[in-house]
Amino acid sequence: MRTVAIFAAVGALVAAVALPAFAATKQPAQAATTLQQMAVDDAQSLVVASEATAAPLARSTYSATTPEEIAKKKAEEAAKKRAAAAARVASVNSGGRISDADLQLVAAGSGEVRYPLPRGSYYVSRTLSSSHNGADMVAPAGTPIFAAAAGVVRVSSESYYGYGVGIVIDSIVGGKRVSTTYGHMTNGTRGVQAGQVVSAGQYIGKVGNTGHSFGAHLHFEVKINGSLVEPIGWLRVNAG
After folding, report:
1. How far is the C-alpha of 16 from the C-alpha of 19, rounded, in Å?
2. Class in CATH terms, 100-238
3. Could you tell me which of 107, 102, 141, 103 has the C-alpha nearest to residue 122?
4. φ and ψ of 149, to 5 deg
5. Strands (DSSP E) along 20-146, which ranges?
6. What is the chain's alpha carbon radius of gyration, rounded to the nearest angstrom?
7. The pLDDT value given to residue 80
8. What is the rounded distance in angstroms from the CA atom of residue 168 to the CA atom of residue 216?
9. What is the predicted pLDDT for the residue at 92?
10. According to a count of CB atoms within 10 Å of the terminal CB, is the N or C end of the chain lower?
11. CB 149 within 8 A of CB 179
12. Which of 158, 153, 142 is closest to 218 using CA atoms?
């Protein structure tokens, strides 16, 4: 009987020691189950920090911020502006291509003789002398040139001696043979060809800087019955 009591006491002692340990080992599992159940009940998902990734950032979505990027961007913009300015200058200096609008231009006036350049577009830097056969009418490159009188084109050339791009027109004015020469025109702008009949004031080309020339201008010559005359005076008397 005493032996049975001893075994009962030992069993009780073992149970008392083992139960707390068992409870301690089961507690985390119960807690985990509770957290999982809460996640389901709340319809939420848990993102672990180590699983998060940064979204890719395209360079086009942000502006230059560093000093190097800002300097580079400014340099690129300045280069574009210089290129645009150079293109505009080249277009003006070249006189551009002949367009349909150019071919429709007519000098002002209704007389038998017209001014070869628009009024107010030029100034005379040199006229007839022993060393110079005509008048230099200084005007911006690309300024339209008109036939001073109706007639037939005798010369139309991209390389006419020292005149560079030049045109010569033979006319009859007041019963006299009049020859007018237009020199230093822009390459590719001649609007008439040799043998062509032209009207007074008709567009024939553009002011340039070809041949023996220093700066854009029109070299304008006038011959009457084969003799040179002072061009500007002749225009003032005859042009209408």
Report:
1. 6
2. mainly beta
3. 141
4. -155, 160
5. 123-126, 135-138, 144-146
6. 48
7. 74
8. 19
9. 43
10. N
11. no
12. 142
Joined together, the tokens standing for residue 29 give 């599992």
Amino acid, res. 55: A
CA–CA separation, 145 and 191 (whole Å): 10
Contact 160, 184 (CB under 8 A): no
Quick one: pLDDT band at residue 36, thresholds 50, 70, 90? very low
Do you know the residue count of the chain?
Answer: 240
| Measured distance CA(233)–CA(240) in Å, rounded | 13
Residue with tokens 């004031």: 201
pLDDT at residue number 201: 96
pTM for this predicted structure: 0.61
Q: Which pair of structure tokens corresponds to residue 90?
A: 């080249």
- Confidence check: pLDDT of 69 > 60: yes
| Residue of higher predicted confidence among 89 and 174 | 174
Note every long-range contact of 94-99, with CB atoms under 8 Å and residues 24 or more positions apart, other chains counting: 94/141, 94/142, 94/186, 94/187, 94/188, 95/141, 95/142, 95/185, 95/186, 95/187, 95/188, 95/189, 95/206, 95/207, 95/208, 96/142, 96/189, 96/206, 97/188, 97/189, 98/188, 98/189, 98/190, 98/191
